[in-house]
Every structure is written in structure tokens, then in C-alpha cells.
Design brief:
This protein is α/β, with parallel strands linked by helices and about 120 residues long. The chain has one domain: STAS domain (Transcription Regulator spoIIAA, 2-Layer Sandwich), CATH 3.30.750.24. The protein contains three helices and four strands; from the N terminus they run E-H-E-H-E-H-E. It has a four-stranded parallel β-sheet with strand order 1-2-3-4. It is extended, with a radius of gyration of 18 Å. Pfam families: STAS_2 (PF13466).
Length: about 120
């Protein structure tokens, strides 16, 4: 993850086709205001994945690229990631700890006499 704090755009669901231009304008404005080059799109509230969500994300990425930036997805569901992969769209996502992996900076305690792994 970059050391720079990126602007965050929360995308509420359900997605309507009429809302797409407004969100594109918001991405453009955030990229111009922050000059960080990345807008983090919180997609956790989009709801069930569908073509409307795919179209929105594709248009946001296109808008960001036209402005010299990109978008990064926060909190995508496995279903949304699968749907995006199915239609051939790849997005950068914020790193989420893998299942059973402790968050960064957490060390497990070692008991005396434990065998080395």
C-alpha cells in the first residue's frame, strides 16, 4: 500500500445507470483535488454483483485513467471479483489479510520448548 493517503469514494447500492455520470465527476474531482493518482472506491455497500455495478466500475476506471490516475477497490465481495473476472476486468484491490493470517504487526507468542517450524 502506498504511504500516501488516497481519497475514498463510497459507492452505495443499488447502482442506477443515472448515477454513473455523477460518480465519474466525483472521481475526476477527487483526482484533481488530491493529485495522489488513486481514488479508493469502497464497494462494500454495492450489494449483489450485476451488470450495473460492472459498468459503473469500468466507467470509473476509464475516467480515472483519462485523468492520469486509477481506482482501487476496497472491500469487494468474492462475488463481485468473480463477476469482474468473468467479464475480463481486473482491478487493483486493497490488500486484505488472508484467512487465518494475523494482521500486520501482530506476532504470535512462542512457548519455551516449542519446536522450530
Amino acid at each position: 500500500m502506498d504511504a500516501v493517503t488516497h481519497a475514498v469514494l463510497v459507492l452505495p447500492g443499488p447502482v442506477s445507470k443515472e448515477a454513473v455520470p455523477r460518480f465519474c465527476d466525483e472521481v475526476r474531482a477527487l483526482l484533481e483535488a488530491t493529485r495522489a493518482g488513486v481514488v479508493v472506491c469502497d464497494v462494500g455497500g454495492l450489494g449483489p454483483p450485476g451488470l450495473a455495478a460492472v459498468e459503473l466500475l469500468a466507467r470509473l476506471q476509464l475516467t480515472a485513467r483519462r485523468c492520469g490516475g486509477r481506482i482501487r477497490l476496497r472491500d469487494p465481495t468474492p462475488g463481485l471479483l468473480s463477476f469482474l473476472d468473468l467479464v475480463g476486468l481486473r482491478f487493483e484491490t486493497e490488500r486484505q489479510p488472508e484467512q487465518r493470517e494475523p494482521p500486520g504487526g501482530v506476532e504470535e507468542a512462542v512457548e519455551p520448548g516449542d519446536a522450530a517450524v
